[in-house]
Specification:
The protein has 252 residues and is of the alpha+beta class. Among the domains are: 1-47; 162-247, Homing endonucleases (Endonuclease I-creI, Roll), CATH 3.10.28.10. The chain has 11 helices and 7 strands. The protein has helices spanning 4-15, 20-27, 31-41, 43-46, 63-76, 98-111, 135-138, 156-164, 166-177, 208-221, 238-247; strands at 77-81, 87-94, 117-122, 125-132, 178-189, 192-204, 232-235. The protein has a 4-stranded antiparallel β-sheet. A 3-stranded antiparallel β-sheet has the order 5-6-7. Strand 5 (178-189) and strand 6 form a beta hairpin. Helix 5 (63-76) crosses helix 6 (98-111).
C-alpha cells in the first residue's frame, strides 16, 4: 500500500526520537501501520517483558518515575482495554500546562520504554497515551466505572514504593488534581484594613481513598494539611508551603 521510500522515511523519524503521533502527522500514515512496521523490524518492542509478570515479580526499574505516573493516573488517568487484550493508559493534561504534558510523556516512556507514546488533542486538554498489555499489571487499581465510585487500594509493592518515593507520588497528584494559588485576606492594622497575600496548595478529588493516600504521603513528609471542605485538601502553613515549593512548585 505504501512505497518502500515512504516506509523508510517513517522509520527514520522514529529512530530520531519522534513519537508515533508525530510521524503520523508528518507523513499522513496511520499510527497502526507505523507501529506494525516498527515492531516487525524490532521484535523486542512487540514482546516487551513486564517486571510484574516475571516468575519473581520486581518493582519497576525506575520507581521514582513510576510513583509520579501513579499519581497522575489516580488523578486524571484512565485505563481502557481493547478486544485484543491491549490496555491504553491515557492521562489528561490541560492545554495550560505544556510542561506537564512533557513530564507525563517522559514518565510513560520511562516506565515502559519499549512501548509507543502519543498525544491526542482534546477540547481543553491533551491526552498523553501509551498502549501495552502490561499497564494492568502496573496499575491493578483499574476497573469499570469512575474511581470515586469504587475502592482504590494500593497493592503491597505499590505502598512500599510510595513510602520511599513520597515526593514523586505527591508531585503526580498535584500535577493532576492539584494547584498552587495565591490567597488573600484583609486584616485591620492600626484601625486600617490591610490586604495580605499568601501562597497555598490545594488538592481536589472526589475519591476518599485517593484523598487519604495523598494525606498519608503528606504526613510522612512532614507537611501540615487541613480539609476545608469535603473534597479539598489544603496546605497553607508557611513552612509546609516552602517544603512543597522545594519539591513541587507551580505547574507550568
Amino acid at each position: 500500500m505504501y512505497k518502500h521510500s515512504v516506509r523508510a522515511q517513517a522509520l527514520r523519524l522514529l529512530e530520531r526520537g519522534h513519537s508515533l503521533n508525530s510521524v503520523s502527522k508528518q507523513t499522513g500514515i496511520s499510527r497502526s501501520a507505523i507501529r506494525g512496521w516498527r515492531d516487525r523490524i524490532d521484535p523486542v518492542r512487540a514482546v516487551a517483558t513486564c517486571c510484574r509478570c516475571q516468575d519473581l515479580p520486581t518493582a519497576p526499574p525506575d520507581p521514582a518515575a513510576y510513583c509520579y505516573l501513579l499519581g497522575l493516573y489516580l488523578g486524571d488517568g484512565c485505563l481502557s482495554r481493547s478486544t485484543k487484550g491491549v490496555y491504553t493508559l491515557r492521562i489528561a493534561c490541560a492545554d495550560a500546562w505544556p510542561g506537564l504534558q512533557d513530564a507525563c510523556e517522559t514518565a510513560l516512556r520511562t516506565v515502559l520504554p519499549h512501548n509507543s507514546v502519543w498525544r491526542t488533542q482534546c477540547p481543553g486538554c491533551v491526552a498523553v497515551s501509551g498502549s501495552s498489555k502490561h499497564w494492568s499489571c502496573l496499575f491493578p487499581q483499574h476497573g469499570a466505572g469512575k474511581k470515586h465510585e469504587r475502592a482504590i487500594v494500593l497493592a503491597g509493592w505499590q505502598r512500599d514504593l510510595v513510602a520511599e518515593f513520597s515526593w514523586e507520588f505527591v508531585r503526580g497528584l498535584i500535577h493532576s488534581d492539584g494547584c498552587r494559588i495565591t490567597n488573600w485576606t484583609v486584616r485591620t492594622v492600626n484601625r486600617e484594613p490591610k490586604r495580605y497575600e499568601y501562597p497555598r496548595y490545594f488538592f481536589t478529588n472526589k475519591s476518599a481513598d485517593i484523598r487519604d493516600l495523598y494525606c498519608e504521603a503528606l504526613d510522612r513528609l512532614g507537611v501540615a494539611w487541613k480539609r476545608p471542605n469535603a473534597y479539598n485538601i489544603s496546605v497553607a502553613r508557611k513552612a509546609s508551603v516552602a517544603l512543597m515549593d522545594a519539591h513541587i512548585g507551580p505547574k507550568y
